Amino acid sequence: MPDTGTATIVYDDPDGKVQERAVENDDIVYFDDHWLVKVGENDDGDDVVRRIPRERVHHVERSIDELEKKVEGAIEKAKEQVGWSA
Fold this sequence. Notes:
Radius of gyration: 16 Å
CATH class: Mainly Beta
CATH architecture: Roll
Order of helices and strands: EEEEEEH
Strand order of the largest sheet: 2-1-6
Strand content: over 45%
Number of helices: 1
CATH topology: SH3 type barrels
Helix content: 10-25%
Number of domains: 1
Mean pLDDT: 86
Low-confidence stretches: none
Number of strands: 6
């Protein structure tokens, strides 16, 4: 599996303390006005995700070179599968 880079999210926790968490790019996504961050796995091996409202997030830094390559490769593969060409 290729390295997709890392991300660091800085946010206020419910007590108002600033938290900083570093994760793999595959473990963080922005959806429905929240940042979703994988924080671990439960006993069954399912991902445990923390939803952080965008209002609490100071910033997110990502190293995206490898992530961009992965996305571009997935787009090209999808185009090939449906018969599209550039």
